[in-house]
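step: validate -> pass
step: tokenize input -> pass
step: predict -> running
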Amino acid sequence: MENALEQSAKRPRLEQAPQNRSLERGIEILRAFRPGASLLGNGELAERTGLSRATVSRLTQTLVGTGFLEYDRARRAYRLAAPVLSLAHAMRSGSPVLQAVGPMMRAVAEKRKINVGLAVADREEMVYLESVRYNRKTTLRNVVAGQRVPIELTSLGRAYLAAAPQAQRQALLSQFKSRGRAGWRALEQDIAEAINSVHRVGYCVASWQPEVVALAAPVVVDGHPIYALNFSVSTQAAPAAVSRELSSPLMDLAARVHQAIEAL
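step: predict -> pass
step: emit ->
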């Protein structure tokens, strides 16, 4: 049975629901703010969104007026305001999926002293919905819900690619290739191997940071976005050794997460 994502991908654009351009552009302004880019002027926002400075100026004034942006007069720039955080809190606290699977993730993370994450795709990145960290490496313990990681480099992203409709997968791969990244051919091969691994055994392995190995499996439930569930550890062990130890617990948790979401 086709899921909603597959049906949407096949639907001609003219048959899709029309979008409100002003709202869409306002959301692009909010999307421009990221960690490390928390204070942006109109010029920077125009560059990041591709919108004209005049359009950006109108939108930022509206977003300030509605309370979603704050204006720093001394720096002549904007930052996200408190209501944005309240929306994130409302999403997390009101999510039946997180309420159902969060306790399972925490139990496994605590028992095995590993990191357990659940993420969904947003454009060219994966966004953590939940991140339970039991890792001695401080930088990895700081990965929190809402944090983004690149699709093409991570086990989360590659698990998503394996489950995504072919049209979406090919579109993303074309975008990654167009960046002209050094070593793209080797990276493309790694992605293909990860996708094949998911199709064969249900999960893939990646090690995109030094001494960190992660395994991920997609969780596909009709009527929901494609989720990716991962385990990660800080270790000097080879990825194959980590896979032998954690693949069975990962697949067991993925099955329970699938069952819990399906029952909602």
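step: describe -> The two ends are 19 Å apart (CA to CA).
step: cleanup -> pass
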